[in-house]
Amino acid sequence: MKRKLIKSSWIIVWSLLVAMFSCEEEQGPAPLENNTNPPGIVENVSIENLPGKVRLEYALPDDKDLLYVVARYTLENGTSMEVKASYYQNSMELEGFTGLSEKEVNIYAVNRSETESDPVTVTVAPLEAPIFAIFRSIGTSPDFGGIRIEAENPTEEDIALLVMQKNIQGDWEPDSRSIYTSVSEIGQSLRGFDTIPQNFALLVRDRWLNVTDTLFTQIKPLYEAIIPRGGMNPITLPNDAELIASHTEVRDLFNGGTLDWSDTYFTSRTIDVGPHLVTWDIGRTTKLSRLHIWQFSEPIGGQRLYYYLGAMRKFRIWGANELNDGDLSGWTLMGEYEVIKPSGLPYAQEDNNDLVAAQDGADYEISIDKPAVRYLRIECLENWAGGEYMAVSEVEVYGNPNL
What we know:
Layout: H1 2-27, E1 43-50, E2 53-59, E3 66-74, E4 80-86, E5 91-95, E6 103-111, E7 120-124, H2 130-136, E8 139-143, E9 146-152, E10 159-166, E11 172-174, E12 179-181, E13 185-190, E14 198-206, E15 215-219, E16 225-226, E17 233-235, E18 265-266, E19 276-295, E20 298-300, E21 303-305, E22 312-320, E23 332-338, H3 352-358, E24 362-365, E25 373-383, E26 391-400
Antiparallel strand pairs: 1-2, 2-5, 3-4, 3-6, 6-7, 8-9, 9-13, 10-11, 10-12, 10-14, 14-15, 16-26, 17-19, 18-26, 19-24, 19-25, 19-26, 20-21, 22-23, 22-25
């Protein structure tokens, strides 16, 4: 009987504790204090108007239980904004403005009981947001199979440059390949379009959903075709790299295999002095648009590692119309490239983002101002193991042989 009573008592106590904690969870965290007297107001507010934002400086009220200062304002697109700053500082930065109008900002001091002071209202006049200068800098031109877009983003704003075409209902619709970036020099091509005049609309949007006007343009994409593998032939120049084994050869670069070890071009790992170069003839002089390259994926522990050993990390593509003794001074640099590992994980560690980015190969674009060439060379500058030997599964060559 005594045991049952003790057990029942513990059940009652446990139930009370659960109920108490449940109530606390429902009510949320309580203020640090219970002071309903509002703190004093901030004073001597100074305003620095900046592109798309405002910096405020102020004097804090002399209240011992002051916790923070909060500013509330509404963007031109109707979005309500709130920015808080600790009582350890006397300034804050307000972002998200277009800079096309003046806006009112209400500033409150808040104590540890979450009691707010009376508002101090200031009028700010931010300068024009960066998206408008980016928009004015947009340039478009025809490219192989599509449109080339260039723009300047000197302050490296996080933007979306939306590229739109009309859908079957006649409404402008963003292309899934629109440009999302924060780089200072934007230069990107959207491909896969027919070689007939194409109508495009472009605008710039920032992370607060502010948008610019729309640029309308018509572009006639340049003809692009894959260069047939059947017309390609291996070439060996005096300074080309030695192969890793007798069965691997230059022809493995364009034999159609993208996964197997036996279909991959390897240079010798034991020779790591000087550049590792490979040369081949693409069959005819061609105005190149891009090379699509599959890096070799090493099978390790039941998975394929694409950023490993001889897979190229940094490399160059060279072109020429006449062969020489291999001296690169007689070749045209078609482009220099660096492969970026999306995850940023340490060497020999890869995640699904890395797999998705690498398993279908990647395009390495060649500038439209480069000359038409017949012979190609790849020079491995650095592989993922830190050496210069290379492991390339396959290369597809694209361009216009009629130019």
